[in-house]
From TrEMBL:
<feature type="active site" description="Nucleophile; methyl group acceptor from either O6-methylguanine or O4-methylthymine">
    <location>
        <position position="318"/>
    </location>
</feature>
<dbReference type="InterPro" id="IPR001497">
    <property type="entry name" value="MethylDNA_cys_MeTrfase_AS"/>
</dbReference>
<keyword id="KW-0489">Methyltransferase</keyword>
<dbReference type="GO" id="GO:0043565">
    <property type="term" value="F:sequence-specific DNA binding"/>
</dbReference>
<keyword id="KW-0862">Zinc</keyword>
<feature type="domain" description="HTH araC/xylS-type">
    <location>
        <begin position="107"/>
        <end position="181"/>
    </location>
</feature>
<protein>
    <recommendedName>
        <fullName>methylated-DNA--[protein]-cysteine S-methyltransferase</fullName>
        <ecNumber>2.1.1.63</ecNumber>
    </recommendedName>
</protein>
<dbReference type="GO" id="GO:0032259">
    <property type="term" value="P:methylation"/>
</dbReference>
<keyword id="KW-0597">Phosphoprotein</keyword>
<dbReference type="InterPro" id="IPR036217">
    <property type="entry name" value="MethylDNA_cys_MeTrfase_DNAb"/>
</dbReference>
<keyword id="KW-0479">Metal-binding</keyword>
<dbReference type="GO" id="GO:0006281">
    <property type="term" value="P:DNA repair"/>
</dbReference>
<dbReference type="InterPro" id="IPR016221">
    <property type="entry name" value="Bifunct_regulatory_prot_Ada"/>
</dbReference>
<comment type="similarity">
    <text>Belongs to the MGMT family.</text>
</comment>
<dbReference type="InterPro" id="IPR008332">
    <property type="entry name" value="MethylG_MeTrfase_N"/>
</dbReference>
<dbReference type="Pfam" id="PF12833">
    <property type="entry name" value="HTH_18"/>
</dbReference>
<keyword id="KW-0227">DNA damage</keyword>
Length: 352
């Protein structure tokens, strides 16, 4: 539910007082500078006549304001959580370690607090995230042609059955069912926002999803069924190309993607996905605007559903669609990623 903003005078008083109770629920756009901030921003306060208040970062961006570099209103909330930040750093230092709740207790952390914090920010617990990290090592070993037992060891699993079960939960099928000679091949791509699974044939990219998306196993099964062939491990040319383009994107060098795509959807869904690709980096649209752009103004709900079935994250930029009120609406990769992607793309918008 959206937060109903109080009157402007009340919000301005909260801004002057740096009232933390409004943090994350109200933002101020300063017309004299073109910047928007949290109400708790330490910068010198603007005059009241230069302030416009909004209930979401999306509304600020849509109004043409850019984020403040002092209070970082677009920074994911996880970065402001010391518990989350500490454990993420620990995971980076020991990626192959088999973390347990006992390890958290040894660090002086309460396991239930950690669980709630990670669920709130990432939709998964810290232990699930650490397990995913270890599975990535196993996936990489399989992609390199190693046998399942070697991949199991690389992933830090003592039991082959536990490795197969964990792999099946993540990918939707056990490692032994992946066909090395399949036309479609899967590989792992690292990004600053987390790991992606890319599935390509020799000619086109078929799927690109964040590894922690809950719909990933279902999407892989659907892709395998629609293509009438198995999925193997490997890195065809389209995967190589999109990995390079993603690296350029996150480095702020280029927001254009030219990797050839295979769109698996109905004619209407493909029409929506092509319209998404026409939204420039740094720009946003509402579902109703997207429906109007394809000449189907009454099909707003159908457009939203098509947006949600997109299987090519970032390349078909469904993260550029906001709610009618400018809010950061649902995103399969997590709202924190959607927020961060919009922040990254502001540099491309300013460069236009």
């Amino acid at each position: 539910m959206m937060f109903d903003l109080p009157d402007t005078n009340t919000l301005y008083e909260a801004l002057v007082a740096r009232d933390a109770s409004y943090d994350g629920q109200a933002y101020v756009g300063v017309t004299s500078t073109g910047i928007f901030c949290r109400l708790t921003c330490p910068a010198r306060k603007p005059k009241s006549e230069n302030c416009q208040f909004y209930s979401s970062v999306g509304a600020c961006i849509d109004a043409g304001f850019r984020p403040c570099k002092r209070c970082h209103p677009l920074a994911p909330m996880a970065e402001a959580d010391p518990v989350v930040d500490r454990l993420l750093q620990a995971l980076e230092e020991r990626p192959g370690y088999r973390w347990s709740e006992g390890d958290m207790a040894a660090m002086g952390l309460d396991a239930s607090t950690v669980r709630r914090s990670f669920k709130r920010h990432f939709g998964m617990t810290f232990l699930e995230m650490a397990r995913q990290r270890r599975l990535r090592d196993g996936f990489t070993a399989l992609s390199a042609g190693d046998p399942v037992i070697a991949a199991q060891i690389d992933a830090g699993f003592e039991s082959s059955s536990a490795f197969r079960a964990a792999f099946s939960r993540l990918i939707g099928k056990p490692p032994g069912q992946f066909n090395r000679d399949a036309l479609l091949q899967a590989d792992w791509i690292e990004t600053p926002l987390g790991s992606l699974i890319a599935v390509s044939c020799q000619h086109a990219l078929h799927l690109l999803e964040f590894i922690d998306r809950k719909a990933l196993p279902r999407e892989l099964a659907k892709l395998q069924k629609s293509s009438n062939c198995g999925i193997g491990f490997g890195r065809p040319e389209p995967t190589e190309q999109v990995a390079e383009e993603l690296e350029q994107f996150f480095a702020g060098e280029n927001a254009s993607f030219s990797t050839p795509l295979a769109l698996h959807g109905t004619e209407f869904e493909q029409q929506v996905w092509r319209a998404l690709q026409e939204i420039p980096a740094g720009g946003t649209r509402s579902y109703s605007q997207l429906a109007q752009n394809i000449g189907r103004p009454s099909a707003v709900r159908a457009v939203a559903r098509a947006n949600g079935t997109n299987q090519l994250a970032l390349i078909v930029p469904c993260h550029r669609v906001l709610g009618a009120d400018g809010s950061l609406t649902g995103y399969g990769g997590g709202l924190w990623r959607k927020q961060r992607l919009i922040e990254i793309e502001q540099s491309y918008r300013r460069a236009i």
